[in-house]
Predict the 3D structure of the following.
Amino acid sequence: MPLLELKNTRKDFGGLRAVDDVSLQVPEGAIIGLIGPNGSGKSTLINLIAGSQELTAGRVIFAGEDISDLAPDAVYNSGIARGYQEPSLYFKMTVLDNVLLPVKGQRGEKPWYAPRWRSWQREEAAQAERAINVLEQVQLLQHYDSLAADLSGGQMKLLEIARALMGQPKLLLLDEPTAGVAPKLAYEIFQQIARLRADYGITFLIVEHRLEILFDFVDYVYVMHLGNLLAQGAPADIVEDTRLREVYFGE
Ligand SMILES: Nc1ncnc2c1ncn2[C@@H]1O[C@H](COP(=O)(O)OP(=O)(O)O)[C@@H](O)[C@H]1O
Ligand SMILES: [Mg+2]
């Protein structure tokens, strides 16, 4: 059984069919690439999985459960976290606070408990310890006290990944994790992704434009074009695919 399965998913925006009858599978523990020219429907597909946009048709099955109709927070609680094409961070907060912010149900946030700091001090210390651990995993710990705004583009992408890890996801959806990132750091981001898979068994579905980097790390690739799945296969097969060359290079 795949960890994630899309069955005939479709998304219409008025008359525009952004995603058209896409079926795909993400096996547990895999790193899967999703590629395609601009406007081919990749980000929309990520939004459909994450629950931030509603399906027009089709089903999304995660760990054997139908999550098609869940709201984004319920999808997150089921074990799917995501990054965004444009880093969506709290830029005027520190790196550490950005990672701590999404932690839900903290006692110290409740008015009754807030003044009774002894009742939540230990819980908060435990969360901070997890946050520090997560920042260490993506090698951002030395920047814990910097403002998010002062990070480089690549570090912002890593901070998004760190924040997603706080939810202990089974599946991480990343939309262009190297967009706007210098080449060396772009490669390092993928090395971190590979390490997170090896160390924690996290499964990845990654939208990426930089194929030369992506193809070094993914097990399997899906290619979208005009909302449809145009091709799929191992990276070596995709490189050889003539339809793909037409779409990307007009050859
Ligand atoms: N919220 C929206 N409303 C209307 N059209 C949209 C919306 N989001 C995306 N689209 C359109 O859907 C198509 C696919 O977009 P998108 O999923 O962002 O593509 P990609 O991520 O592959 O570049 C594009 O034509 C885009 O203009
Ligand atoms: Mg996109």
